[in-house]
Write a structure and sequence with these properties.
The structure holds 2 protein chains of 2 kinds.
Chain A lengths: L1 H7 L7 H11 L12 H4 L11 E6 L2 E6 L6 H8 L18 E4 L2 E4 L12 E3 L14 H9 L8 H14 L5 H7 L10 H17 L1
Parallel strand pairs in A: 1-5
Antiparallel strand pairs in A: 1-2, 3-4, 3-5
Helix pairs in contact in A: 5-8, 6-8
Chain B lengths: L14 H6 L14 E7 L5 E7 L1 H5 L3 E5 L25 E7 L2 H9 L2 E6 L6 H5 L12 E3 L11 E3 L5 H8 L11 E5 L2 H7 L2 E9 L2 E2 L8 E6 L2 E6 L5 H11 L6 E4 L18 H10 L3 E3 L3 H7 L2 E2 L2 E9 L5 E11 L7 H13 L3 E9 L14 H19 L3 H8 L19 H12 L1 H4 L6 E2 L2 E13 L6 E6 L5 E4 L9 H4 L2 H6 L7 E4 L18 H28 L6 E4 L2 E4 L5 E3 H11 L17 H7 L4 E6 L9 E13 L5 E11 L6 H21 L30 E6 L18 H17 L10 H8 L15
Parallel strand pairs in B: 1-14, 12-13, 17-18, 22-23, 29-30
Antiparallel strand pairs in B: 1-4, 2-5, 3-4, 6-7, 8-18, 9-16, 10-15, 11-12, 11-14, 16-17, 19-20, 20-28, 21-22, 21-27, 24-25, 25-26, 28-29
Helix pairs in contact in B: 10-11, 11-12, 11-21, 17-18, 20-21
Classes of the chains: A alpha+beta, B alpha+beta.
Chain lengths: 209, 806
Amino acid sequence: MGDAESVGLLEKKYSRRSFIKGVIAVGATASSTGYLLGGAQALGAQMPGATERLITLNINGQDRRVDVLPHETLAMTLRYRLNMTGTKFGCDRAECGACTVLIDGVNHYGCSMLTHQVRGRAVTTIEGLENPDTGELSIVQQAVLEQGGFQCAFCAPGFIMSMEAMIRVNPNPTREEAAHALSGNLCRCADYDKILTCAMRAAELARSV
Amino acid sequence: MAEKLIGTDIAPPDLIAKITGRARYSEDFRPDNMVFAKLLLSPMPHCRVREVDATRALAMEGVIGILRAEEVPSREGPREACLTDEPHYEGEPVLAIAAITEEIAADAIEAIDVDFEPLPFVLDPLDSLRPGGPTAYTDGNRFARAPDAEQGDGPVWSDFKWTEADFAEIDAGRMPSDAVAISNWDKGDVDAAFAEADLILEEEIVHQSVTHHPMEPRTNMAYWENGKLFAHVSTQSAQRTKAAVAGAVGIDQEDVVLIAPYCGGGFGSKIAGTTPMQIPAIFSRKINRPVMLRITRYEENYVGRARPGFQTWVKMGFRSDGKCIGIDLFIVEEGGAYGSGDNGTAGAIADLIYTPENMRFRAVSMYTNTPPKAAQRGPGGAQIVSMLEPILAKAGRELEVDALQMRLINAPDPDVAFGPRGSTLTSVHAKEALEQGAELFDWAGKQALSGRREGTKVTGIGVALSPYTAGSRGFDGLMVIRPDGKLYVHQGIGNLGTHSISDTARPAAEILGLNWDQVEIVWGDSSRGMPRSSVQAGSQTTHAHTRANHAAATDAARKIRQIAAQSLGGSPGDYVLDNGRVFRRGGGAGMSFAQVAERAIQMGGEYDGHELPDDIHRETVPAATMLAGEGLMGVAKDNYGGRGGVYTFVAGFAQVELDVETGVVDIKEFVGVTDCGTVVHPRSLGAQLFGGCIQGMGMAMTQKWVYDPKYGVAFANRLYTARPPGFLDIPLNMKWAAVGIADPQTPVGAKGIGEPPVGAGAAALTTAIADAMGTCLCRTPLTPDIILSELEGRDPAFGRLDQHVG
């Protein structure tokens, strides 16, 4: 409910002028890259019934201030505002899973989630899996590296995020269970056998931690 | 001793980038001032643009410019331009708009008023062949030199039609015996063979067209700087794509910097780049800003290429022992808007896998108003194998010869000569692959399962043989040992996930006695120097570039030994190379490669690349010249030669369960065994083999190609309506193996693997389904509704030769 409100009713108090001032005041806010999605609105037209656009997202453990349109998807925000291009667009419409990210530890399609929906929630992307201090790969990444997973690997970030979610829910899967856990992701190279071996190895590593 | 590299599992050097999100595909680059292009796609299968009013769009804030068809290169006839005012398929790009955001560009496209004049269209090539039937082009359906053309005359349009009598035969369910073919060949006496055959089977077959749909759509970005074009292209190849970009834009190759470190799959649809890659290149020159053209999945369905479908009549004659003695094959190919020619390979491969002594091949490829066709993994071969293998199994049932025995008795031997020119092959171990696969699959033990019914489920088993070309010759290798002592192998092939960029460098490391951590692969950026290379297609690179790198490394080894002999005495033959050093045999004086590289630079000449061999390709010369003086250079053309074609074979085995109440097929087991010569990288080979086989299963079962016959628009235009196989569609029990006999005509012994698995996967599935049904259903895709209507004897609501049915 809170999310719906935040998307639908948001503050009308932000005129464009005060909004821009706000952006300037924050300084470090992302979105100054020139790839705003805002259409005419971003360029100076009135903002009727404006939703709050300057929001804080928690991405890979860091709070990021970001200027987001009401109808903007999380995958768009990641790729074109935060320049986090590890999350891929394969279909734009919940068909392939290339844009999979974790939200509070659960795998979701980033193309089918509005960015405003993830306010106050922890978003993890492929860029956030390595240990930020040591650079050590996550257990899943280690498993994939060890097993030589993926061919073209355009689907890899999405699959890896689904594997991360899987080992949290079921660190002791059968191959059938792992296949089900990953069935929301498509690999057009059809490297499924090896991907499954990676997932099973990741689960094995997770159990030994 | 340096480690053995060929035949071991080594992760490719780009894997960490791929699994951390750092690998940058075309859509991941962000130059300053970049703008976004969006395309206006044709809403009709064939129309003409009467008028465009872009006033409102161009007045929108944030819109930078428009690109129209008259501003891009085009050629007369059925030849594709990147934008057109006469689209020949639904979804063909008409114009492009650039804006500071993708959303503004999309809004601007919506604000453009276009007046389209609808024109007649045709989806089904048979309709185009009918007297009075529609044609895909206003001026006809055939573009070729006239029979009475004078020398120097170019091709002209004409109407190519069959007769009412031909169609009377077709409508009666027979091969049109006298219909005129565009291509044909024959050998032996096929009519005499049928006269003496113990069994003759005749079938009408429909193989659908099917879209490639790589995971990464054909997104491209480009900008110009100091007169050079920087092209970020989603492409299978690299050096050859650079040449293609230059040709398309009309500039010198050396004025193109191609940046393509990663490609998210192509499967034949992005061989030397793509048609849409021209749009950012031309648009960015016009507006003087970097242009990103992000292709969405919806757009990819249209501009993304497809495998051509076949409507086929076949007559096969067999002796009582199962040997095929005659084939009469007539293929009508759905050529799409710009034509295709898969049928020729299909005919040759039919000859290769059934080895009849008598064969007649005829084919017609017709333009249709559907998306352009292109090679798709095993082009022609995958279609013919998945169509004909169930017929072979059916013959076996009628003759009471086991399906594996049928496969073996008809499989080629090493001395095979096939196709219109009696082609020979460098090595053939198809029978070994079949025998090894039969053992791995337990063919003998599974006989009891064939046709077994439990509840509503019937088991079927199938076996198939799928060959395809797997190599080429004569390309260049280029490598430098730098003063850091490392070998830098410059690769001009592409990086689409086959691991060729690193696997084909392994022979170089072995020849030079280097461990893998002493080798750096240089790829994906033409400004770093790329030798003339094969396209990354047709399963060529493993063969072609193990050879080229073998040649260049042999050149480097010769130079190293000469430098050692000059520096340390003795003759070059006294020296051996190992662990990054060159030293006198039996111990004694030696030099590190770092010292050798320094010495090469001092000596100059051929040693550091200031003098180049005469026979290398002119496109290698600029790269080698740029690298001259950087270290000891190995550069050479592959002059190893060879006689005959290079083919890899895959034997596929499948066990399925067919639910006779629902028509759903569950693939329980799959085995694939390949004859691809020496195995370079086992894990990657297995992945290629399975991946290709599963793509074949998708082609035969889950992906649909459906068009609305009234309006000529695609019904199945997204992944969920034409779904490639996912985890729940495939067998979890898959096994693979390789025969592993080296090809004698190539120094490393390795042949490619990309193409042939597709036919093996598709045909193992179609034969297993046919086995479960006790008949062969000569149509793809074998969706549950089609299977069910056949099982229940219901009218399927479409004719046996109808295409595009949903």
